[in-house]
């Protein structure tokens, strides 16, 4: 039907048309034209390739694909053979000739067109090449104007003029393109009008579907005409919609017939039970001959249900293939098969042979799968070819203009799109079910034909194969017409809706050369057992592999179970075990108990058949523990397990298996003192478990592995103490059995490689020191692998790029520079060296059915022997002795039943305990120790895990300045070293030894503590341990020197520093200087005075020093002593030393502030006078080189806060005092100062310094600079220190009270007569 083209008739001057038709056929289909349709339908762009036929006037009776009713317009029933446009061609250029002959011919032609079902027409006037104007005058009107005026006054677009196409000029090309565009537009407009009328008629026919006499087959052909037209116009998606609507309508009729009366036309579909024709989608199977014949049977209402369904699906498949929607074709296929089978059941269609539906389904599945595969390969090949041709064309036309380049680029991009789309097509999601469906039907056919392994071929089976094969042809006269038996004979197609045989050829694909058709595959598969087995196993592998590819592992396991059953019938139990184990793992993970037990029963049968005792015992244990089967069956497999274990008593092999559901550990409790008493520490473990076995069982050994628990990551060995067991037989003495399953020692992995831990490999590790794994990390990894065998450990090695080569290339981190961004970068890579293991599909490896068991180190265990474990809950007490200190954890439980060892999963770090061996410890206990007083401390000895025997001596010595005494000692003298005999003591007991300590007293000016050491020598090790004792001074002492003129007073302050109350008495100050013993010291405090000092309280003592008899050039040393006493202790003496030098008064300073003359008060902002008087004490004496006489030059400095005073003028200066002149012993200085704030302000401070002028005679650079020397404490007496002056506010800010008492010179404490005691200058 791809040969169908839109029909356009031509009439008029035939030679003129024949001269233009080559250009028409070449150019009309070049450009796509926009097809705008009614009812809001989507606009399409279609390419038109019409076929021109001579105009044939329709008969007056209304025949020719239309129905005429009275005076109404004929109703179209066929669209493919109806011309959609009528054209009239003429080259008349003379108006007179036109009026004489051409006009009448056109009028006659138009009358004939109006009687046609489709009345669209177009008149084309062709200008001949020899058209020369003979008259110089312009004619009033041309022939084209006459035609438009006579026939198309309101539709001028139906008359076009085209220049001679033979000319090569722009005018000819433009006129030709205009004509082509007009033809396209009119043709599509004709189709739009015609299809609207056709659809209205079609809907009217569909509305009559419930009337008597309505026939679905006739309506099917009517709507299929619309589908053919849409397909012809390359609107494949809407053509497919027509078939989908017919499919849905037919299905609805079938479903309704199940509940209502069956229509008469539907009864014909229930016949032909002797044929089950195969679905044909390829031309190799005779599809181009069969499908037109099926359409003829539809026209005659004699089609069978399967033939009708095959035809309908074939048409849908062709349209999907044209749209390259192969994925949707695969998606529709399974539903098509199920719908057909369901409709056969509803219509009660019975077939003459059993298995006929299986044959039809099998062949249909293979036909669909082959079509999808071949079409996908064809699309890929065509896309690659187009892409290659486009690239070659671009290279050849590299020098074309820019517009042409853009066109080629667009073509190239468009060429890539189909390839990209085709490469992404994945039909496995939908084809997997088709492969599985075909497998199931082939198995059913093999069972019917006696082709299964345990069946015996008979003659009835051979007849069954022949009958089933012969029923696949759609017609009786079609089966033997093809040499291959596929049915490709000739049929009578003369009445197929007036379509020619060429038009009915379907675009069915061809199979690749040498490939068998599905019917041939079926015949080949049913020819013998060997070929059936080959085809069945091939289908199983395809179905299972496809299911795995799309991730539907459960469906793959279902196929695997069928395959396992087939291998069991063949007697190949080894291959059955592989598929059964895969299914078992999946069902167990999904907790499908019934399916799991069913698989276990088959596994037990296989293991027993291959005499695999170890796996048979493990499988029997699993079955015996299952509650999904009856008690007698559980007891049977329990007896089988015990019988096999009895046979292994004389063997040295052990069978290991996980506890899984055999013994379920419910709780674990560990009790331990945590301390090693003597040689070991007792550990008791209470183990609670539930036994799922149907009967009591005696365990010869139940043990719990105890391993060291490391909390800090460190370098550990990989599985140096554990063994990765996968059902192997471990012999006594550490040797391995099991033949090929045990890994050889020389095949162990390298130390720095972490092996893959998949389910089929045995694991034994060499020691490795590169990774830092803790015991928790090991348990986590092993627990994951126990739960899921597919968990792999990936070996990742960090490599740094360097310049190595070959297999030993070492890569190092390289530092490079990004030239563009001028930035440095550091690169590295991480390489996985076991990609083939870690990145493979998790079920791609062949599973051998072994059980994974990870056994940890059982060198140290808590165990018990000969325990009877009853069904249900059991409590078992395990005991152990730990002699090595450390942190331990319970790692794994092992339950031994004869030679059968059941291992629990790793317990991780949930159950921990510690065993400590504590060494003896010596410490000291003391409160707040005060220096200078006898106080008690306690030496505490904690024995730890050691026993202290009688006669051990503890040696204690102290640091310098600390005396010790044992309280129980008979001696009253304290010393710096003592020996103490210790009493016998048990482990983890504390012994206390009291001592009396006394630290020497030192003078302290602050609260700084000082520390002493006790050095204790341990008798059990000989090591010395230092213990610290901290002492605080009882007092904090200080002194002050006060002056009143030339009189001097010294004051001593004591501040309490102890928490204890101390009583001080008998204070005394004595002179220590050898030349000043006769200097009088007059105490101002009575000697008999006693005071109590606590922490924070102070006491002051004062003495007057006789200055007149003192020569102060030498140091004057004094000793202060006082007795202090704590409660019920002897009195102690506290001493404090004072040193004075150059403290006699040399100068006296006096200052005052007065208002200027004419001003009564000192006010803020007013200038005031400040008078400074400096006088000197004593007369000039002979300088003996040791005494300090007053200097002649002094420098004064006046300092004041800028917020209180503003100093005007010079604030410093130099004055001279001369002993030769009495008037020069007093100097006065006047300054102007301005008060800045009102109130009682302190006087500005005057500071005096010795001024040493520069020595001009000396050559030293140091003497050339004048210097200032400060006076010592007490050498300058400031009589005005502490004086204040009253400053009044400014006049405008004063209140109404103007009478103020006191002048400007008044001061607190009687002004200048105030005597101030100055201790600091």
From TrEMBL:
Residues 1149-1288 form the TRAPPC10/Trs130 C-terminal domain. It is found in: Golgi apparatus. Residues 50-70, 390-422, 479-502, 729-752 are annotated as: Disordered. Residues 919-1033 form the TRAPPC10 Ig-like domain. The keyword Transport applies. Residues 522-622 form the Trafficking protein particle complex subunit domain. One of its GO terms (cellular component) is cytosol. The keyword RNA-binding does not apply. InterPro entries: Ig_TRAPPC10 (IPR056917), TPC11 (IPR021773), TPR-like_helical_dom_sf (IPR011990), TRAPPC10/Trs130 (IPR045126), TRAPPC10/Trs130_C (IPR022233), TRAPPC10/Trs130_N (IPR056913). Keywords: Golgi apparatus, Transport. GO terms for biological process: early endosome to Golgi transport; intra-Golgi vesicle-mediated transport. Its main location: Golgi. It holds the Pfam family TRAPPC10. Residues 1-329 form the TRAPPC10/Trs130 N-terminal domain. This is Trafficking protein particle complex subunit 10. The lineage of its organism: Eukaryota, Metazoa, Ecdysozoa, Arthropoda, Hexapoda.
